[in-house]
Structures are given as C-alpha cells and as structure tokens.
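ok so I'm stuck.
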Amino acid sequence: MIRAIYFLFVLVGCSAATDQKPTELVNAEKLKQLQSEGVTVIDIRTRNEYDEGHIPGVLHVDFLAEGFIDEIKKQDVFKPIVIHCASGGRSGRASKMMEEVGFKTIYDYSGGFSDWKAKGLEIEK
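replied:
not stuck anymore, here's the structure
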C-alpha cells in the first residue's frame, strides 16, 4: 500500500513538473515591476517601430531580422527575461522559439507596445 502511494506521488509530481511552461503572460504593471527588479526587457519589433518610440531601458532585437535567435541566445537562459512586440503576435511566436532553445523563465508582455502607449506610460525615442 505504501509503495502504491509513493508511486502515485512520484508519478503525479513528475507529470506536474513537465506540464509547466516557461512562458508567462504579463501586463504593463508586472512588466514595470520586473524591470525595476533588473529583469532584461527585449523589444522585438522592427527597427522602424522601435525608433518611433519604445519603453525606456529596453534592449532591441528585431524578430523579423536574420539572426534573431542568435541574438537572443546571447542572453543567459537561466535568467528571467521579458519580451514584447507591438501587440502580442510576434512575442508569442518568439517565446516558443526561446523555449525551444532552453530559456527557463520568459515573460511575454501580451499587450505589447500598443497597450503601453494606450496607457500613457513613458516612451523613449
């Protein structure tokens, strides 16, 4: 009986651990909190989009540029990272790519820069 309970505990524990995804969707408030804690924020919009305005203090890596994943791999896969695009489409695809190359904790600002701007938050040019 004890063996059966132990086996069930191990089986459930292992399956729960493998179901966990490294990507979590976040809003503007959570992004600001993470940024204040020193978490790297990467804007993955195009150069033109970035130059028109961006969240202060972000790193820019164009998702549509050749070598995107090579640039992303320069980040430490064991440190949390926030990514965002204009409205969430590209960041969703990028987070899947980042999961595949081993990033452990990815925060996806699903509202993207459009949400940030609509909230009237600080923008840098």
